[in-house]
Design goal:
heterodimer, A: alpha/beta, TIM Barrel, 9 helices, about 45% helix, globular, B: TIM Barrel, 8-stranded parallel sheet, disordered N terminus, binds zinc ion
């Protein structure tokens, strides 16, 4: 099966430079049979970055993907608290640069109006949009979105595909929260490999709306691949989850940029 | 129990793996065909209280374990978390394990806060002939500086029982809102291990909360671990650089976790053949010998 990983960070991978870290991640990915890695955010983490910080992090990603163009896809990290700077950065990295997606993390809840111009512009560019979500019984961070917040945003842009990062972590609630919004996709990455997760996602969303990702280097490729390879679903569903769905979402922007994959 | 499996057993299990393997199993096995069968030190029978797990019927779990070349699996019971009548929970566990040949090895639950708990320990050892017990201090509501726990460790070590202590069962962020069980604070263990010579302690599901200096101190005091909740790229090999490799055992946390997670971790990491053998089975067999 062809495997593409939706969700990879250089943080947590060994190495002194972005290039070294990316090389290490690719070496591990090779052991696991993973062909392509979507990579976003830099080192160190920044939860609420000012523009100069997210630009620096994106420069690190540009360096890393520049060295491994046939193995990686870059997503631009933006902060909706800085709308104008985010739009300029989207143009720099995606419209004029080699990146093909957008990463939104925990700076600002994603149901806020500030998201609108970013989603609109990313949609025009056909960039793959990834929004982190969690539903922590211990309490979310102040700017951290829930799948319910994302459902609100998705309802405003029903024609724009958006990926629900971590499916809320508490996936039994997260899957239900996004189920009615056909433009929302479930990211399997970055939580414990609890059995039944992938089966429920496939049952409730259909295999076309479920995407494998790892959240490596902090997570292992292995634990997250186990969620798909160990699931009691058809091989056809596994193939969609492991790369087919991501390929379908990312193909328009790749074609636009003349990138072959 | 010897450290090495007889050659005949190894050949039989490799053939079985080759015949039954799914693509996932084959992927996990391809580079390690020369290895020994696995000892999975972290599985549970019965029902997880908060959902049905896809493999929570023993025949399905056993089939999965065999498919991946597991030759021995140390099984606790989910009933041990919340049931008060641990005597019947442990008897069911022992019977269920017996029903599946010698693959499943029962590890009964003991709660040192229940009246006359010493009887439970005695039954695990003498009646059910269990090689070890499993503890859930957080679900049972005691801290590790409780004198009852020290006494339990002493009695268990006198009987040469392996003591498995589950630090958590799941990510604290996804716990049921009415059952928010904190992780076990393992800090008192370092001194207790020093004061209880011969104790055979293994921490299960430790790596979500036990890291860095506290982890190194526990390992230096003699604790063993398993890899079910270990995360990070190449994490098992990374752990062998921190801890003596003989302290690291294989564990899946199935059926609550997908079994494939743990077995794929062995594929992700690069080991020496000695480390590989030790983690797959040698360390576990030595711990219960
Ligand atoms: Zn992430």
């Amino acid at each position: 099966m062809t495997i593409w990983d939706l969700h990879v960070h250089m943080s947590g991978a060994p190495g002194a430079t972005p290039t070294e870290r990316m090389a290490q991640l690719i070496a591990f990915a090779d052991r696991m049979g993973i062909e392509r890695l979507c990579v976003y955010m830099g080192i160190p983490w920044s939860k609420d970055p000012p523009p100069e910080t997210f630009r620096k992090e994106n420069d690190q990603v540009l360096e890393a993907i520049g060295k491994f163009p046939d193995r990686t896809f870059g997503f631009v990290y933006l902060n909706p608290k800085h709308v104008e700077a985010s739009l300029a950065e989207l143009d720099r990295c995606v419209a004029r640069g080699p990146m093909v997606g957008v990463k939104l993390w925990v700076a600002h809840r994603c149901n806020a109006a500030e998201l609108d111009p970013i989603i609109k512009r990313a949609g025009e560019l056909q960039a793959v949009i990834f929004q982190h979500t969690w539903l922590k019984v211990t309490g979310n961070d102040p700017g951290e979105s829930t799948p319910f917040d994302l459902a609100e945003l998705a309802a405003r842009y029903p024609a724009t595909p958006i990926i629900c990062g971590h499916t809320g972590g508490d996936w039994e609630r997260g899957i239900r929260a996004i189920r009615a919004h056909k433009n929302l996709y479930a990211d399997l990455a970055g939580s414990d490999p609890v059995a039944g997760y992938t089966e429920m996602a496939v049952r409730e969303l259909g295999p076309e709306r479920v995407i494998y990702g790892s959240d490596a280097g902090g997570r292992s490729f292995a634990s997250q691949l186990g969620k798909v390879l160990g699931a009691q679903i058809s091989d056809a569903a596994k193939q969609l989850i492991l790369s087919g769905n991501l390929r379908r979402l990312i193909t328009p922007i790749l074609q636009r940029k003349g990138i072959k994959a | 129990m010897t450290v090495d499996f007889p050659r005949r057993t190894f050949l039989k299990s490799s053939l079985a793996v080759a015949a039954l393997a799914t693509p996932a199993a084959r992927a996990a096995d391809s580079t390690r065909a020369a290895g020994l069968g696995l000892v999975d030190t972290n599985v549970n029978l019965s029902r997880w209280p908060f959902r049905r797990c896809p493999l929570d019927e023993p025949p399905a779990l056993v089939a999965k374990l065999r498919e991946h070349g597991v030759e021995q699996s140390w099984a606790g019971t989910f009933d041990g978390l919340l049931h008060k009548d641990l005597g019947s929970a442990n008897a069911r566990l022992a019977a269920e394990c017996r029903a599946h040949g010698n693959l499943l090895v029962p590890f009964g639950s003991v709660n040192p806060k229940l009246p006359d708990w010493e009887q439970e320990l005695r039954r695990c050892a003498e009646v059910h002939r269990m090689p070890g017990i499993r503890l859930h201090p957080n679900y049972h509501g005691y801290k590790l500086d409780d004198p009852a726990f020290a006494r339990l460790l002493t009695l268990a070590s006198e009987r040469k029982l392996v003591v498995q202590l589950a630090v958590v069962m799941e990510d604290e962020r996804t716990l049921h809102p009415l059952v928010q069980v904190p992780p076990v604070d393992t800090a008192p263990l370092v001194d207790l291990l020093k004061k209880t010579p011969g104790v055979r302690l293994q921490l299960l599901n430790a790596f979500r909360t036990v890291r860095g200096e506290p982890l190194l101190r526990l390992a230096a005091a003699g604790a063993h671990f398993e890899i079910a909740m270990l995360e990070g790229v190449g994490s098992v090999a990374g752990l062998t650089k921190q801890l003596p490799a003989e302290r690291i055992l294989f564990g899946s946390h199935a059926p609550l976790f997908y079994f494939e997670s743990a077995v794929l971790k062995l594929k992700e990491s690069i080991f020496t053949p000695e480390q590989d053998r030790a983690i797959r089975s040698g360390n576990a067999l030595r711990l219960r010998a």
